[in-house]
Amino acid sequence: MATVSEIMRHSLPLLRAEMSITEALDKLLASELSGLPVVDSQRQIIGFLSEQDCIPKLINASYHCDNRVTVNDLMRKDPLTVTPDADVFELARTMGGAKPKLYPVVEESKVIGIVTRHQVMIFLNKQLQNCSISY
């Protein structure tokens, strides 16, 4: 069984709930990911900030130059996560629906990485290329 730990990205910036949204967006945009986990001081996941969640809420804040907005104001407080030992094929089935495009990877509630739909697609493509199909 292929596991998430085999395909996940181990290095990623983490956000804090009290962080200003401008600082968080700088980290998010530099990461080239569509979202980042929000953690407490022990790296335990407490939320998730995605581009999709940000845009509607930032329209008003940016129009009125309201830079008092924090990550806590915009983050999703019930993030979906996966464990490093999760089956990649099961995750692929989940991602094929309306679920998120990326998942924080957590072990004992601590963020240890992230797995994206793109990484899952690369894995599935490699699997397919390794198949020996005879007609």
UniProtKB/TrEMBL annotation:
Pfam annotation, one family: CBS
Keyword Nucleus recorded: no
Record domain CBS: where: 8-67, 75-130
InterPro entries: CBS_bac (IPR044729), CBS_dom (IPR000644), CBS_dom_sf (IPR046342), Diverse_CBS-Domain (IPR051257)
Swiss-Prot/TrEMBL keywords: CBS domain
Identification of the protein by name: CBS domain-containing protein
Organism for this UniProt entry: Oceanisphaera arctica
